[in-house]
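Hi R.,

Here's the input for the zinc ion complex you asked about:
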Amino acid sequence: MTIHQLREPCWVITPADDDGWSPHYGLWAEASAAATEIREDDPGSLAVAKKLPGPCWVAECDGTCEDLLGDDGNPLHLHTAAEALDAMRRQGWTVIHGALSGDELAYCGNDKPGIAEPLPPSPAELEAAGQLRLPGVLS
Ligand SMILES: [Zn+2]
Ligand SMILES: [Zn+2]
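And here is the predicted structure with zinc ion in place:
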């Protein structure tokens, strides 16, 4: 799945925590429940759920772990694809452009491929792609 934008904007709690920590929620109900909990703990709090203006970007490892790019198990949500790429670089991820599909493939530090270039397609893959060998051209 590599770098992709979520379908729906996330919900956050506003105002954010004193330390700026603001988790993202996929559903209004989750964010609203969290905001209610904060107000119960601190009756002076004005915490409410707020929908972000646009969907976040996330990065998912195309290697064996299939983990999302994140910090200590919290998936990182970025505002733009460029920010996602920056965050990936900082965390030692590798991005490879697939020669066949044109897709970007992302790999975490643990799943980093040993070679930067993808392997050439096999004859079966070429056939599947409609590039059949012409008779007599190659023997
Ligand atoms: Zn988000
Ligand atoms: Zn991985």
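One thing worth noting: Residues 61, 63, 65, 67, 108, 110-111 surround zinc ion (ligand 2) (CB under 6 Å).

Cheers,
M.
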